[in-house]
Design a protein that fits this description.
Layout (H helix, E strand, L loop, with lengths): L3 H7 L6 H12 L4 E2 H7 L5 H13 L3 E4 L7 E4 L13 E6 L5 E8 L17 E4 L2 H4 L2
Parallel strand pairs: 4-6
Antiparallel strand pairs: 1-3, 2-3, 4-5
Organism: Maribacter algarum
GO molecular function: DNA-binding transcription factor activity; transcription cis-regulatory region binding; zinc ion binding
Pfam family, one: FUR
Amino acid sequence: MIQADKFMEDKGVRPTAMRLLVFRFLAESKTAKTLSDIENAFAKADRTTLYRTLKTFEDKAIVHQIDDGTGMTKYALCEEGCNCAIEQDLHLHFHCNNCKETVCLTAHKIPHINLPDGYVAEDANLVLKGICDKCSGQ
């Protein structure tokens, strides 16, 4: 696993105790997590502190947001070397209609899309929905 404190320092983030806990929680998770999921994992933590931690992580390309259509923003760790640039670091996400979990499919990159002149992309999110490998039994 990634050495959390070194990874954060390399991204310009001070590795506080709470930031390290949240980072490790996300690193050990195989699925994207909501703020509520993270809050439930740290019952004694303040919701505002957790939100600010996620916002800092997002601003420094440590995590990225996923809108999987459930109405709840989910967060997942970025890969090493990711800078969350729309031109180069986009990958698929998969939301299981059965277990309701969302995962990053980082090995499956979204190709660059050439927009017409005058259009400027600021965000992109491609979520496939179906049945995951665990739920399908394959």
